[in-house]
């Protein structure tokens, strides 16, 4: 199940600023082989043993990863937290929506590849399945917002 | 328009960014070099030719107040989805003395044209802006 929250909350359990949170906290953790593969897939970067990264832009540190890659790693490293994915491109969103038991903040629909069997829970109440369910939910949500003049 | 194009070298890359609308949104996949470009512009704005560039990202203090003071500037905003509120979006629409390059995905509330939507493309170390939406 993917838990999507569409209203922003200022809570200790939420990561709203992914760059800031990653630079200060997540980057200090150890990274698994799976997470190193994510870094390679999204940023085409190789993570070295001493936590530098090698990219086409040169040698850098984990701080130089893209915001999207940092967001993905924040999700993977902080399974109990709700992570803001509003800054992610489609390449990162596709990976996020192939994962399970994650909690994310997204206030609008995006073009995402979603498997037909993927279960998505919106705002802790509505459960839909697959891309069709995702799109249908957003269609109805926009109708609700129109009614509420939001 | 403050700048119809921005051109500079940052070895091994060459940047040639052409703008077709007063407001340019740079979107596309993650990790296409948007924040790297922002960092390059931090240096470029110190040159005489590009001194009209004004930069904001999530580290900027008093962002909203400072944005509203801008006139005749080329304003670049990284982390736009985090920073921009409705008042900022109205200001961007109506303060026409400024030009904007926004690293932003949510375009709600902005007056845009098809020329506004751009992707950052790098090929053989040449970095350009490419239209995201096909011409109708």
What is the topological layout?
The complex is a heterodimer of chains A (150) and B (136).
Chain A: E1 2-5, E2 14-15, H1 18-24, H2 33-43, E3 46-47, E4 52-55, E5 58-61, H3 67-77, E6 82-84, H4 90-96, E7 102-105, E8 119-122, E9 126-129, H5 130-147
Parallel strand pairs in A: 1-7, 1-8, 2-6, 6-7
Antiparallel strand pairs in A: 3-4, 4-5, 8-9
Chain B: E1 5-10, E2 13-18, E3 23-27, H1 34-44, E4 53-56, H2 63-68, E5 74-77, H3 80-83, H4 86-94, E6 99-102, E7 117-123, E8 126-131
Parallel strand pairs in B: 2-8, 3-6, 3-7, 4-5, 5-6
Antiparallel strand pairs in B: 1-2, 7-8
Count of domain modules of chain B: 1
Low-confidence stretches of chain A: none
H/E topology pattern of chain A: EEHHEEEHEHEEEH
Portion of residues in beta strands of chain A equals 15-25%
Number of helices of chain B: 4
Name the average pLDDT of chain A.
96
Number of helices of chain A: 5
Number of strands of chain A: 9
Domain tally of chain A: 1
Radius of gyration of chain A: 16 Å
The major pleated sheet of chain B works out as:
8 strands, mixed
Proportion of residues in extended strands of chain B? 25-35%
Multimeric organization = heterodimer
Main sheet characteristics of chain A: 6 strands, mixed
Distance between the termini of chain A: 28 Å
The overall pLDDT of chain B, averaged over residues, is 96
CATH top-level class of chain B: Alpha Beta
Q: What is the strand arrangement across the widest sheet of chain A?
A: 2-6-7-1-8-9
């Amino acid at each position: 199940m993917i838990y999507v929250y569409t209203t922003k909350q200022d809570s200790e359990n939420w990561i709203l600023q992914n760059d800031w949170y990653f630079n200060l906290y997540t980057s200090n953790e150890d990274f698994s082989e799976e997470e190193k593969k994510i870094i390679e897939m999204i940023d085409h970067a190789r993570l070295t043993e001493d936590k530098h990264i090698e990219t086409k832009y040169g040698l850098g540190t984990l701080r130089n990863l893209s915001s999207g890659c940092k967001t993905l790693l924040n999700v993977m490293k902080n399974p109990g937290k709700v992570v803001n994915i509003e800054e992610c491109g489609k390449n990162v969103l596709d990976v996020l929506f192939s994962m399970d038991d994650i909690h994310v903040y997204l206030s609008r629909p995006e073009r995402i590849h979603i498997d037909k069997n993927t279960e998505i829970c919106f705002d802790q109440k509505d459960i839909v399945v697959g891309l069709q369910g995702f799109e249908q939910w957003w269609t109805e949500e926009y109708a609700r917002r129109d009614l509420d003049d939001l | 328009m403050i700048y119809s194009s921005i051109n500079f070298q940052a070895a091994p890359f060459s940047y040639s960014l052409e703008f077709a609308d007063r407001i340019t949104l740079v979107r596309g996949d993650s990790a296409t070099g948007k924040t790297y470009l922002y960092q390059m512009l931090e240096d470029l704005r110190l040159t005489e030719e590009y001194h009209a560039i004004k930069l904001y990202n999530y580290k900027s203090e008093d962002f909203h107040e400072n944005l509203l003071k801008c006139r005749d500037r080329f304003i670049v905003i990284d982390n736009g989805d985090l920073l921009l509120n409705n008042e900022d979006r109205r200001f961007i629409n109506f303060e026409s003395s400024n030009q904007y390059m926004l690293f932003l995905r949510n375009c709600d509330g902005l007056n845009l044209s098809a020329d506004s939507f751009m992707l950052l493309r790098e090929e053989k170390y040449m970095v350009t802006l490419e239209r995201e939406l096909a011409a109708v």
